[in-house]
Design brief:
With 316 residues, the protein is an alpha+beta fold. Helix content is 31%, strand content 25%. It folds into 2 domains: 133 residues, 60s Ribosomal Protein L30, Chain: A; 159 residues, PurM-like C-terminal domain (Phosphoribosyl-aminoimidazole Synthetase, Chain A, domain 2, Alpha-Beta Complex), CATH 3.90.650.10.
């Protein structure tokens, strides 16, 4: 299975030894450092068991590339640990590998190695993605400063809307809206082209995976600041407004799987960041500010706190 389906994915990786060894070797260019991230996906938690195998593969890779992008890193390659149920089929693996190959071409990365096992439980896969960034320049969660503006790429909540549709909501929604939201859940768009533009401008950054409020809370905690979000500024798609109506904003900011980049930066850098986002083909919206204090507050147009029942997705 490895030789037939996964070794071809490593052909362009010089140190991968065509997946015939226990390890891969990497050369990091002078003045660069390695950025490493890993995410595990489990059937029934992160995707539906009947999702197409190529889409499962591409989502697994993309959520990791999203982490690299939020640090300002350029992707280099990835490792794959794949645990297959005992009733696995070769045709499923073939389509899964085809999905990885498709995204390798899009994002210029290669498989470097990994592991394959059987499992008595559900399908589980973990990808470890590697990238490079100039030494000491990776954009951490801990750099937000009072006075910074808060920005987010793209639109928020679409993946949550896609999940809601899979769970039975939106039966009367227009097919184009259903398809658009469904695609955002099945196949996130990591902001790889925009990520390196964060360097030199952003003080703090992460990708939105558990929900916008929850993830901005991680920045607030790591930076020792308070983040105020203006509810009216949250970028929402027309499809999500059609699905959730007046509840769209509140549900969007606590939905997960967006994989957009949320960042803080001095307001004076907004024109440069907006120009970089335009070149990368993604919208950038200013949604709030960083203040002295702690936590995250969600404010209406009068500046009053909007209570939220929860901040985002939690596993435990």
């Amino acid at each position: 299975m490895i030789a037939r389906y996964f070794a071809p994915l490593a052909e362009k990786a010089e140190g991968a030894a065509n997946l015939t060894d226990d390890v891969a070797t990497l050369r990091v260019p002078p003045g660069q450092e390695l950025v490493v991230t890993t995410d595990a996906l489990v059937a029934g938690v992160h995707f539906f068991e009947d999702d197409l195998p190529d889409l499962i593969a591409r989502k697994a890779l993309r959520v990791n590339l999203s982490d690299l992008a939020a640090k300002g890193a350029t992707p280099v390659g990835y490792l794959l640990a794949l645990s297959l149920p005992r009733d696995w089929r070769e045709d499923w693996v073939a389509v899964f590998a085809r999905g990885l190959a498709q995204d390798q071409d899009i994002f210029s990365v290669s498989l470097l190695g990994g592991d394959t096992t059987s499992t008595p439980g559900p399908l589980t896969l973990a990808i470890t993605a590697l990238g490079t960034v100039p030494e000491g320049r990776a954009v951490r969660r801990s750099g937000a400063k009072p006075g910074d503006a808060v920005f987010v790429t793209g639109t928020i909540g679409d993946a949550g809307g896609g999940l809601a549709i899979r769970q039975g909501e939106g039966a009367a929604l227009a097919p184009s809206h259903r398809d658009g939201l469904g695609a955002r859940y099945l196949l996130p768009e990591p902001r790889v082209a925009f990520g390196p533009s964060l360097l030199g401008f952003a003080h703090a950054s992460l990708d939105v995976s558990d929900g916008l409020v929850a993830d901005l809370g991680h920045i607030a905690d790591a930076s020792g600041v308070r983040i105020a979000i203006d509810a009216a500024s949250i970028p929402l798609s027309a499809a999500l407004r059609a699905l959730w109506g007046s509840e769209a904003t509140l549900r969007a900011v606590t939905s997960g799987d967006d994989y957009e980049i949320a960042l803080t930066a001095p307001a004076a850098h907004e024109p440069a960041l907006a120009a970089a986002a335009k070149v990368a083909g993604v919208a950038l919206t200013r949604i709030g500010r960083v203040e002295k204090g702690e936590g995250v507050v969600f404010l209406d147009v009068q500046g009053e706190d909007i209570p939220l029942t929860h901040a985002g997705f939690v596993h435990f």
